């Protein structure tokens, strides 16, 4: 069996993370043909296949995944060594990739983010707002800020607080529909099928099984906006709607809607200065008020 070096590990890691030749090439900053030849050479030298070629991309086998894990460890050690060399009075720098939902980004992170930006002007921030869970193991992001009652055991992180939610309406909507006496009679904005397991969707189906939502959204932020603009009632976090003028809490505090908010990262990168600094920033800056009365 042939030998394998650090560049080979970097190649495998890029393909495991990217899942396609094109994305692997982008991550390595080379062209696709170079990656194609490199992985062919490596598999020939190892006398083993590392990836299954499919129409939709490259699927790593167990050996490739294990090599990628070794590559991640090398990558983290190199990153830490670079930071060690720069750990004097020079300002913190580098790229920090943050993933979260659009709701948390707009309602919690963006209002306080200038504090971090001003404190660390040479740190580049890549913000990805999505309801899809980014893979921290594949380094799609460095830090994930996510609601969860049970974070993945292979990640490390900090609990930032508890998100309280309630059923809301605007006073304008209630005034325009005086004949509506109970929520079951009202127009609802609710999660669509992509968020069918969201706590608010489960709660609505349990408490109001006969309700057919007038608006279906793939974002809780959109539901909150529909409520604020008087189009419907809907469930949303207190941090989005509680302080907005003209908004009425129809349900009070609902324990079943509460969920913890976590900042999570991969163990291999938790010691990086910029990761630690962002965690410290989140602990001191994110404020969650459980009150929804």
Automatic annotation (TrEMBL):
Residue stretches making up the HTH lysR-type domain: 4-61
Keyword Lipid metabolism on entry: no
DNA-binding is among the record's keywords: yes
InterPro entries membership: LTTR (IPR050176), LysR_HTH_N (IPR000847), LysR_subst-bd (IPR005119), WH-like_DNA-bd_sf (IPR036388), WH_DNA-bd_sf (IPR036390)
Superkingdom per UniProt: Bacteria
UniProt keyword terms in alphabetical order: DNA-binding, Transcription, Transcription regulation
Gene Ontology MF annotations: DNA binding; DNA-binding transcription factor activity
Family indicated by similarity: Belongs to the LysR transcriptional regulatory family.
Cited PANTHER family: TRANSCRIPTIONAL REGULATOR (PTHR30579), TRANSCRIPTIONAL REGULATORY PROTEIN (PTHR30579:SF3)
Protein's name in the database: HTH lysR-type domain-containing protein
